[in-house]
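Pilot study result, target chain (480 residues):
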Amino acid sequence: MLFRNRFLLLLALAALLAFLSLSLQFFHLIPMSAARNGASSKSRKRIMPDPVTEPPVTDPVYEALLYCNIPRVAERSMEGHAPHHFKLVSVHVLIRHGDRYPLYAIPKTKRPEIDCTLMANRKPYHPKLEAFVNHMSKGSGSSFESPLNSMPLYPNHALCEMGELTQTGVVQHLQNGQLLGDIYLKKHKLLPSDWSPDQLYLETTGRTRTLQSGLALLYGFLPDFDWKKIYFRHQPSVLFCSGNCYCPVRNQYLEKEQRRQYLLRLKNSQLEQTYGEMAKIVNVPTKLLRAANPIDSMLCHFCHNVSFPCTSSGCFDMEHFKVIKMHQIEDEKERRKKRLYLGYSLLGAHPILNQTIDRMQRIAEGRKDEVFALYSAHDVTLSPVLSALGLSEARFPRFAARLIFELWQDREKPSEHSVRILYNGVDVTFHTFFCQDHHKRSSKPMCPLENLVRFVKRDMFVTLDSSSTNYHDACHREGV
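Predicted structure:
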């Protein structure tokens, strides 16, 4: 009898533990381990699944909310996670600027009234917001390469200017910076307390929204940093290609990709009907309205909870918004199936990826400079890099998106280094072209740095279906 009671008690405990384990996995409180020998191919299909809140079918409103990236109190993050015998030795961060005012105006409508001054009594708020403004007011132009030295260091217009960073955009990157600071500085001690200027590499395009986003992230990362110890470099190209921007074949791929987009739009009768309805509301030709890119402005209305524009002939509404947003989603799906954008991406992203691995290799060889690199960029910078890495399931870069390359040293074998790739806090290393089959060939828990180096130096051109073995030849080959 005693044995039977003990058996029933153990059975009950086993059932309780199984229930708790499933519950924790469902609510993301413990990670789901990847199966070996290819059994995880299904779970690896999507990079950022959220089974609790994600709709069962594609929902344009849900996708738009993700794009807005409205600041939240807590965010899921896997940065800085590695087996205990690995040491973090460098981090390379590529960000998209934060929330901004539209780049385009809808003809014959009133601009959305959004205040671009930074105010602590207005949402969204961040505890470091006031200190950030105060610190920026002390900034010196000598800390920036021309023409950055003539730009405002934070947004400050009662009515936002076109393309200007908003308070939401500042808060998004203050949060990003604070999160990365907690992980990389407080936990991993990536920079010493007496860090030197040559340990940081900072680069941004010549737009106020990218400079200000970079500064917001840097302030969240290194609060009250010494202005004399930072220097932002100016990058003229959105592709961060520096002196390697001339690439005729890349431009050919882009032209073909734009033609594909145009033909897909012509096939969408619902989209054409929607543009026609909206054009009548503002009393302009349909072609003129389409050229004004109304979705850009409508996304600003949507993200800031401002009513869509109206005229005496009617109002733009949520149904119009859904149709255009849904077409964007369908366009992204078709883009993944074609290799035109991939060809553009492999050549467009090569210079910045090459620069990143060169810096990683120097650090792996023992150099101590530029251990933290920050590139403040645009969606048209991140999107090609994601595609070139093979992250085809990654969503289009949201406001304040972040793509991070971590370099780790094996303490037990100091000559061996590994990399991790993270997109918006999610570890996507084993979704990449260069490491998606790593678990089949090796028992090592991390992806070797050599995999990424080999991919950028050689295999990117193989993926391009090119006989070329270097960037210059791939850019100038014939017969694309």
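One observation from the pilot: The chain has two domains: 60-241+340-476, 249-338. A full batch analysis is planned for the follow-on phase.
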